[in-house]
User: Fold this.
Amino acid sequence: MSTVTFQFGGEGEVAIIAATGEQLLEVARKANVAIDAPCSGNGSCGKCQIKLLDGALASGKTRHIDSDAWQAGWRLACDSTIDGDATVLVPDIASAYRSRMKTDLSSPDEIAIFESMQAALEEAGLLRLSAVREFELRLEAPTLSDTTPDNERLARALRTALGVERVHLPYFVVQKLPGVLREGRFMSRCIYEIHSGAIEVLDLLPAGDSLPLCGLTIDIGTTTVSGALVELPTGKILSKATAGNAQIRFGADVIHRIVEQQKPGGVRRLQKALTEETLSPLIDSLCRGADVPRDRIYRMVVASNSTMNHLLLGVDAEALRTEPYVPAFFELPPFRCSEIGVELAPSAQLHLAPNIGSYVGGDITAGTLASMIWRGQDLSLLIDLGTNGEIVFGNSEFLIACACSAGPAFEGGEISCGMRATDGAIEACRIDESTMEPALTVIGGQKPVGLCGSGIIDAIAELFRTGVIDGKGKFIRDGRRIEQDEFGIGCYVLAFPEESSTARKITLTEIDIDNFIRAKGAIFSATLTMIHSMGFMPSDIKHVAVAGGIGSGINIANAIRIGMFCDLPLERFHYIGNSSLAGAYAVLVSEKAEDCLSSLSRSMTYLELSVQPGYMDAFIAACFLPHTDGRLFPSLAPLSK
Amino acid sequence: MSTVTFQFGGEGEVAIIAATGEQLLEVARKANVAIDAPCSGNGSCGKCQIKLLDGALASGKTRHIDSDAWQAGWRLACDSTIDGDATVLVPDIASAYRSRMKTDLSSPDEIAIFESMQAALEEAGLLRLSAVREFELRLEAPTLSDTTPDNERLARALRTALGVERVHLPYFVVQKLPGVLREGRFMSRCIYEIHSGAIEVLDLLPAGDSLPLCGLTIDIGTTTVSGALVELPTGKILSKATAGNAQIRFGADVIHRIVEQQKPGGVRRLQKALTEETLSPLIDSLCRGADVPRDRIYRMVVASNSTMNHLLLGVDAEALRTEPYVPAFFELPPFRCSEIGVELAPSAQLHLAPNIGSYVGGDITAGTLASMIWRGQDLSLLIDLGTNGEIVFGNSEFLIACACSAGPAFEGGEISCGMRATDGAIEACRIDESTMEPALTVIGGQKPVGLCGSGIIDAIAELFRTGVIDGKGKFIRDGRRIEQDEFGIGCYVLAFPEESSTARKITLTEIDIDNFIRAKGAIFSATLTMIHSMGFMPSDIKHVAVAGGIGSGINIANAIRIGMFCDLPLERFHYIGNSSLAGAYAVLVSEKAEDCLSSLSRSMTYLELSVQPGYMDAFIAACFLPHTDGRLFPSLAPLSK
Assistant:
């Protein structure tokens, strides 16, 4: 047996005993060290790079690691096995995905975007009437001539005060009843909801308690989890936080997660990765940020894709990925958070934004609610660029939704130097046509660590605009930033080691570009197929809401230039950020929004692209810069030949 | 520090480290060794006798232990402190109360009594319509053209099959849904309830599962806990069991328990004594007896006095014993068993028989249901002789109930050689008028261990009939079985050491007789006060149902002879055993019985004896054999002067 020590660049270390021959990636999983492994360890993505600092590993040579990097000790964790004691560095680029809490890095731009969504929801009357309310109760103290028991005394007072006939006290409130009532001399603070004509008491606090009455809104993405602690019923956001989804170590996309949960104990393991390793520290951080204890959180609203909400509930998700793709549920009534092991107030209930299909989940229905595309007569699109791509098309009269297998490229997945839109990510770039030198915009202003989705769009658009690459994404110019590896694969060096935060080159390779072209081709062809399926043309679209983790820096002109979005006037596009979180927020603070989401989701039609005639042809035609059919991009005519 | 070892007469031992000067009774509590201590350790009851086998104890001399016994090593645990290592024997007479599981010792008589109650409930239509039912479900398998999610598919099928519109699936059923449906090829066994027009799914089992669908009925007495595992919906009793209430080590009666729960952590400690130390082994035994796993138990019905049900729920019971005597609840809606830490099927709910006052609890309301006194026009009494005495009076038009401070004498408490009606208890006795020699009937047929309630009644009645004692309970004859201790207190020796199982004398002392006379006086005066309060006379009573742990051997004529029951024709009395368990059983197997119990308990009036004019005088007058007013017992005229 050998001791394997994982280091994180000055942030402590983790040691574990492992057997000779064990795969390092597997050893890391056992040690709960999350190494980014989007391909789940089959050697194809090259993302699970670690650096051998001391000791020995038996590793395979791979095209993902050049000779210099190999010399420096870089190895793939999936292609290394234990061969004695070893100390390895888990590098920054992987730690961007590590399941650690980060306070929310939202830029002022992103906050402004969220607030404008709040304003739109408010204007639509969707932010009023929180279900969770409170009441200062003053009961008559019992006497020998009025020996009504505590529970009936409380119910009697609530009925009188609120004019509602039925009152239900959950067990845990009964349990604390004699104490709270007598400590407060029969004055108390009662937290309750009213549902279908009955008062549900959520908590009873001693008189004088003045901590805020809170709710949680959480967006669980395949890669990133974002949350906000909200004061009820005012709707004020008390704290915000974002964390990596700790399931990332089981694979980058939902398919890999489902494969992983099929292993013995897998469902429970993936559930715990979400509840214990992701949500629990996230909630702790939110509570610390607002100085509110967990037991003052009375409601949690989660928006997430179908796989994530199945796994959050510990429900076998296998049927989501096998024909006929039938989930365990679309919509569920609320149930206690404690049932999935999330400890808030004992009465706190989990509300899930409803799914409408195996691949169009609560994140999309909640996002649709927030996008407001369902409100007017104008034909609109919602394009959500998460770890997958989902598109909703319609207006107040109809809504259809589809999922396209765009993969995780928009969040930096399947891109060798990709990362999500957080500190150190190149979010925008321009390339000088003559020198081919780049001008980079990096989140946080530091030296770059990698590229996020909006940065990749810019880089590809600029390489194409400057003639560095052709319509197929192949390099057709030479220069000091254009290199070829030993396998003949070209790449563009965005940052040399001395220009980067990681002291390693940041490049965009032909493989990356190819992956991204397939991703943008999937989005574009899905959009077109959807519009055509309803008998419309792209030019009929009046509004395009772009949502997701691609970053607020997205350059729409560049996204059109590479043929990702339809060629429409720029003013029709709006980046709306995390619409899923905004929709969940609305449901948290407003009964009306919850009802609206429920009926919205029931009225949405799921379009299964794979059975749409012509979809595959449309996809293949879209895998070109900007498109094989230049007529679809009239504004680019001078460039697109 | 010293090592104290507790032995149980060949049934293993328990050792614990204790400090010099610590009270042995307290040390025993810490070691979880239950030594019967009805007076909670104040030295007055003399029950906590242990035998010092080895080592040293610092003990006080006490009237409860005579010189021979002292010589043999007998001490009071409450009056002994640690003074070095010691090994002590916890004797049989205490172990009768120890919190160990015993299979039910019910005699054929008691089974017959229970069955006759079942028959009466059946005849009243109260044993039909179990709320918990099952259904063999056969769902259409999903296809690409019918991708309805599992939960909606299940709900759709249930709606069609049962003609009920609303269907609710709890979280844990959703969690297992995909697995169970696909394993059984979309055939399954659905366990459900129908409540106010909605189907509540309780469980979903794979097709072919054939284990019985079960419920639990439990009577939690202050001293004894009895339970039965019942097949739903047939009502068949699969197993029965009885255990001592493990709270006994905190005191014999409810007042001592409430005092104990006021100490830090006391509420939780007393709750755990019930849930973990009493109910859990009882349920295990019931499940073993019927070869049924716990997770096939879908409902638990508990009948218990107000203090027991408050403590079972972990609710502070202090307000029950302090003016104005206001409980936290009378009636509660059902809630999950898991909320109080009793793990059955995840959906299993606890139904509590409702209380009507601080001292008239669910055991009495359930007992009233089973007694059937509420059914006809005839005026009837239910006299429940448990650890306390409760009396219900009325008919189909009115019901009033009261509690009298009879103390635990009927279950053998506060009687020096008292015990409950279990193996070794003298349950009946006759005394020869000339020789004064007794003829004893012992439960189980062995040599006697002590006296249960019916045995005490007989002994006192016989001593009175034979002129051995006078109307005040003082000894007025001499003989070889009549002794006086060093304090001049007389006693009758029912068994000399060689005649007893414990190799110690079994006696009935003047103090015992005095205690019992006060207990029977409380019952009689309460009965009379109640009858008079409604303007009736004892002779108006047509039926008297006698319930409780006094034992099926109760000799009614003797109970009348000592002035415990009204002087009515014997055929008007019926011993109905554990009516509380029978009532809980009815509620378990029948929705109609539950509704009936609920309305019954709401219609019952609680009579507070202590504020009834004349009650104290009536009590004092009744503390005589049979009564100071002989006219109340005309049939005894020749004996009562």
About this structure: DSSP finds 17 helices and 28 strands in chain A.
